[in-house]
Amino acid sequence: MRTGKTGRRPGRSGSRERILEAARQRFADHGYDGASIRAIAADADVDPALIHHYFGPKQRLFVAAVELPIDGRDIAPLLSSGPREETGERFARFFLSIWEDPRPRASLSGMLRSAITDAGAAAMIRELLLVRILGPAVAALGVGDPELRVTLLGSQVIGLALLRYVLVVEPLASASLDTVVGAFAPTFQRYLVEPLGP
Amino acid sequence: MRTGKTGRRPGRSGSRERILEAARQRFADHGYDGASIRAIAADADVDPALIHHYFGPKQRLFVAAVELPIDGRDIAPLLSSGPREETGERFARFFLSIWEDPRPRASLSGMLRSAITDAGAAAMIRELLLVRILGPAVAALGVGDPELRVTLLGSQVIGLALLRYVLVVEPLASASLDTVVGAFAPTFQRYLVEPLGP
DNA sequence: TCGAGAATTCAACAGTCGTGGAACTCTACA
DNA sequence: TGTAGAGTTCCACGACTGTTGAATTCTCGA
Hints:
CATH class of the largest domain in chain A: Mainly Alpha
Strand content of chain A: under 5%
Largest interface: A-B, 48 and 48 residues
Oligomer: homodimer
Number of helices of chain A: 10
Radius of gyration of chain A: 20 Å
């Protein structure tokens, strides 16, 4: 609602929501550093100072925009239910079902991109993805070496997300869901429940 | 050699080499955007304008600093030699031997970090890592679905490198070489030579 | 009806960034 | 010895960054 004039606008303007939406998009596309407050403000058709008024410093806007829609405790029962030799496939389908949905994808993309450059966000990905989400899920399976398994799993999960959803590398990006599940399920199966050693 | 005075220095100063070294380090630690010309110049104890004098715009400095020390044609014969059921392990050992060496690691880290944020570098990782390095290696094996296999392989390679070397996530980062080989070799084996489908 | 406070913008500050030009000094070769 | 050119610095430009303070206009409860 940029009328060029100062002062409050009549009625409900929805600026706050537009800011969050624009921030999610920018963070997803350009990462933390690449997404400037001014660009987000322009997308939301709003003055940069308004963003600061609502959210304070940039870091706070980031955590407000990129809030994780997944709870690790949802995964644990899903993995434990059903035959153990299909654990990897269940995990693959669950993981992909989240990323196929465009809304969480923007948040997750933002996290992933930002984690690579920003040191604080790197700690965040460790904390959120590995400790809070994958950690409990693996722990609930009661297998040996849970910490190592979490990182193995994380390495494949992040690599897959990066190539298929963030960088959009073909032919992986356009491969059908069943193809992707078929390709990655055995890998997840090994990292989750099968013996690791050489 | 910052004497505070202008003009050429006597003797060989090695500025060019120091600039490249500093650039590699900065790009590795902070990615393309995060590594400023000025910071690189400070590390190399040199005026920022000298960097521009040698390498032109920043993009040219990046490709000069981050030059890949691997040739895809070196990998192909290595993968083909030896028993086929150990192909994945040979690949794992080769791949890890490169990253364990600190010099290429800096270059590769820089590429990886930059590829996530900078759009041009994303195309570069696709071109260099996937097309020029993993592509020929997989093609030489004469298996079906080579393009898909390259991206599967790439997803695990990048995820592993990211967690173990770039983000340094424990316990993967400190795990012994044999542990890592043991954990990932079967995955690589599947992506390289074994049937994929569900 | 009045006043507190929410919403919004403008203008500006102090940084940082990449890059270009001009000037200076040394080297290498004719 | 003279001179073209490589190496090097300083300075400045214009653009962009996150953030702050003040001013303005609207809303809502007392």
